[in-house]
Amino acid sequence: MTDHQLSRRSALAGLGGTAVIGALSTSLLTGPEASAATPVQTTVPVPATDPAGSPPLNKKVEQRVGALLKRMTLAEKLGQLQLVNTPDLARKALATTPCGGVFSVIGAAQLNALQKQAVQHTRLGIPLIFGLDVIHGYTTNFPIPLGQASSFDPAVAETDAIVSAAEARRSGINWTYSPMMDVTHEPRWGRIAEGDGEDPYLASQMAVAKVRGYQGSDYSAPDKVAACAKHYVAYGGTEGGRDYNTVDVSIQELHNHYLPPFKASVAAGVATLMASFNTVAGVPAHANSYTLRNVLKDAFDFNGFVVSDYTGIQELIMHGVAGDGADAAAAGITAGVDMEMVSTNYVDFGKELLARGRISQSEIDDAVRRILRVKYSLGLFEHPYVDEAGEVTAVSAAARAKARSTGSRSMVLLKNDQAVLPLQKTAKVAVIGPLAVATYDLNGTWSGLGTGAGTTPPVTVLDGIRAAAGSPASVTYARGCDIESADTSGFAAATAAAAAADVVVLALGESAAMSGEASARSNIDLPGVQQQLLASVVVAGKPVVVVLFNGRPLTLQSTHDTATAILEAWAPGVEAGNAVADVLFGKVNPGGKLPVSFPRAVGQIPIYYNHQNTGRPADPNNKYTSKYLDLATGPLYGFGFGLSYTSFTISAPKLSSPRMNRHGGHLTVSVDVVNTGAVAGDEVVQLYVHDPVASIAQPVRRLRGFRRVGLQAGQSKRVTFTLTTDDVGFYDNRARFLVETGLVEVYVGNSSAADQKVTFTVV
Question: Which is the catalytic residue, given 133, 199, 309, 327?
Answer without folding.
Answer: 309
